[in-house]
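User: Hi! Is it possible to get a structure for several chains at once, not just one? Here's what I have:
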Amino acid sequence: MQKFVTKQIAILGSTGSIGRNALRVIETLGPHYQVTALSAHNNVRLLARQAERYKPECVAVTNPDRVESFRDLNPDPDIEILAGPEGLIQIAELEGVDTVITAVVGAAGLPAVLAAARKGKRLAIANKEPLVIAGELLKKETQINGAAILPVDSEHSAVFQALQSGRHEEVERIILTASGGPFRQASAEEFENVTLEQALAHPTWDMGPKITIDSATMMNKALEIIEAHWLFDMPVEKIEVLIHPESIVHSLVEFVDGSVIAQLGEPDMCLPIQYALTYPARVAGIAPRLRLEEMGKLTFEKPDLQMFRALPLAYDVARTGGTAAVVFNAANEAAVEEFLAGRIKFVNIIELIEHCLDKHDVKTTVSLEELLEADAWARREVTSLACSV
Ligand SMILES: NC(=O)c1ccc[n+]([C@@H]2O[C@H](COP(=O)([O-])OP(=O)(O)OC[C@H]3O[C@@H](n4cnc5c(N)ncnc54)[C@H](OP(=O)(O)O)[C@@H]3O)[C@@H](O)[C@H]2O)c1
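Assistant: Yes, the chains can be modeled jointly so their relative placement is included. Here is the combined structure:
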């Protein structure tokens, strides 16, 4: 009988929507899946509760100003506390850890994701932004160091599962599905006057605020096109987007013989998280069961590229390569922050992204330093422009 080696897991961003779901999944997978490290940025109260329950070896509090509050809430001397962004890298590199779930939001996760790849870990990647901005670098480190990348994003998990039906060269196209967000049927005038509350009300998925806004602008799908390009080594011309408001078909792969293989499930992240942890095995878990007979109709339509300008931009960005993707992502992160803070309108988000891409002088060969420089430039540009819109 095959001996099961216990998996030691670090969760980067355990206090977020993905992080909390990952803990629920791990708990039901049994004693062979152990939580070794956790991280939070601001929410030290929740981190303290998680630490008490899961008894990790160490935790990272990435916002240095919150470390003392955490210490007060969790004085357990057996749990090592690592502080600041460096702490996230340290837990990603921990000797005993074999699996790192990356569930931090935004480009902030990049150094730790790279560090985990350099240490040859299994990376269960939810945090798509590092792949988008540094896909080439991350793939290189993964290959050199024998690391593995398993997608957690539901669409990419679906594609990953569908791809097992054929060979890479037999793929005709990847079809990423998108719910279309809350403004799929909005008029141009309604779109112009979207409020924060409306943008945060996603029709099918319950997620963190940044990705929820990204879904409303369809920037999330734009990032996912580039994510799929790197994950599956596929030219963007072979990656298409279809609106599927019910969020049941999580994505599809069409093969050269015309067969289309899809993965279906309820809109719930537990299944893709679990599959990234148990792959290549499938085990019973907490994911809700799909009852197609209760579903009614499943519908599909083409996205409106004039309304959701992030989608065509993603193809241009991927074809341009170099520092274009980092500017695309950083401008979006900064603009979403401005929108969440009530300083700009919803429609300004895409305008600021377009402005940054127009103004940016793309560098084609990229080091981590150049990526970080371009990232900082785009954020500064958005912040200064946001004051004048
Ligand atoms: N939610 C979903 O269903 C879903 C689906 C697919 C992909 N994703 C991707 O998964 C990632 C996480 O999404 P989410 O919805 O779980 O986000 P979220 O709920 O906002 O959680 C973000 C996590 O990152 C931490 N964090 C925030 N800023 C940080 C920083 N500067 N440095 C280090 N950690 C920081 C947060 O800590 P505190 O809360 O303690 O401040 C929290 O643990 C995103 O890249 C998203 O695109 C999410």
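The first strand starts at residue 7 and ends at 12. The radius of gyration is 20 Å.

User: Great, thank you!
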